[in-house]
Amino acid sequence: SLPLSPKPPTLQFSMATLSEAALVAASPKLLFRQLFEKESSTYTYLLADVGHPDKPALLVDPVDSTVERDLKLVKELGLKLTYALNTHCHADHVTGTGLIKGKVPGVKSVISKASTAKADLHVEAGDKIFFGNLFLEVRATPGHTVGCVTYVTGDGPDQPQPRMAFTGDTLLIRGCGRTDFQGGSSQQLYKSVHSQIFTLPKDTFIYPAHDYKGFTVSTVREEIQFNPRLTKDEQTFQGIMENLNLPYPKKMDIAVPANVVCGLQDLVNNV
Ligand SMILES: N[C@@H](CCC(=O)N[C@@H](CSS)C(=O)NCC(=O)O)C(=O)O
């Protein structure tokens, strides 16, 4: 008789084989897009409740130079943009929130109260920003700037699972925001990340405002394990932050004054 040929291996994919961060947040209602602005390596996020008849949407951290692209996408997808949010007063690029307000009547700009920047809505820890039946919860995460917040998708039966945290510059993938200007404090940043982000469920997705190495998404579990700065004890972390020796952002002198007035330095009355 013929020798039995070995059975070809069957292909098996399990949750354990795939990187957790490669999975997309599961919600039949949430439309989610991650958009990139190359010059400042900034991520803008579009979220919408497509289970709601109006398809209300919001943008997190839009950039002035990519507003046209973002609004074209919003239109193509038939969404109704209701909010344009900033995680903080950015120092490296001009926010797109002011421009968006001028182009889409009714959109409200949002930033933290602690930022002292102009906006239609000033949020604080614990506030909820609803778009349709979905919402973002506000967590105060000062340290990169005094007014930094992290927006986290809601905790509830109809909200996206796993949760998603839009961390701005507080927590970057395998990094974190610098703490050497705009009221920055490495002590505060360490506390913010450990108390407000690392305490979220481990499968929570981390979506930062920047990435300089080509990463797109991480999870709380991954950052607790692999973040080269925030896995250290607080004293070592402070030493790391004091010795980053990063040059100031090239656009800082333009960006900060513009962003305190919603990105519209010359049109203060329109904010
Ligand atoms: N080269 C860029 C600015 C790069 C930079 O400083 N990034 C900030 C966030 S934007 S204020 C940061 O916190 N970086 C942390 C890090 O470890 O890189 C430019 O000129 O715009």
TrEMBL record:
Top-level lineage group: Eukaryota
Acetylation as UniProt keyword: yes
Main localization, broad class: mitochondrion
Family annotation (CDD domains): POD-like_MBL-fold (cd07724)
A GO CC annotation given for this chain: mitochondrion
A Pfam family this chain is assigned to: Lactamase_B
Gene3D superfamilies: Ribonuclease Z/Hydroxyacylglutathione hydrolase-like
Record field: catalytic activity: S-sulfanylglutathione + O2 + H2O = sulfite + glutathione + 2 H(+)
Intracellular or extracellular location(s): Mitochondrion
Molecular function terms, GO-annotated: metal ion binding; sulfur dioxygenase activity
UniProt cross-references to PANTHER family, sorted A to Z: PERSULFIDE DIOXYGENASE ETHE1, PERSULFIDE DIOXYGENASE ETHE1, MITOCHONDRIAL
Name of this protein: persulfide dioxygenase
Organism: Acorus calamus
